[in-house]
Amino acid sequence: MSGLEQQLARAVSELQVLERALEELQGSIAALRVALSEHERALELLEELKARGSPSIILVPIGGGNMIQVEVKSVEEVYVSLGAGVVVRRPVDEAIDLMRRRMENLNSALRTREEALASYAQRADELRRLVEALYRRLSEAQQAGGEGKPASG
User: Fold this and answer.
1) What is the pLDDT of residues 37-46, one digit of tens each?
2) For residue 80, what is the domain's CATH number?
3) What is the C-alpha separation between 6 and 137, in angstroms, rounded?
4) Which domain holds residue 31?
């Protein structure tokens, strides 16, 4: 294998790794955006319910685009998920603060992944140009009968 062929193989290999990483980052970014959106909606609802006072009547989604009308008798306490199926009861202000902190963490993770995505995408573009250039050089060398001509075997 000639030097050009080796360079081309390394560049293609690195490009494939980067493309897989880009796909994973895009999936992670999409999941973070969904989680952030859910937190935003929950926070808006809690703040609105707190401002209205009790009792309040709201529509609660039950799936499949269906909703039921529910009377919220009290918003003094909120059941908050801690993860792994663990839920605790917290005062509404504490729950709101917790959601804001979680949103800050989600935003930070989102920014980090978006920065990585931009960096990886830039490197992938550079590698695509390199692969094209190396392929052209290798084709030209093979046509001229010079370096890079595959060995018969």
Assistant:
1) 999 999 999 9
2) 1.10.287.370
3) 13
4) 3-143
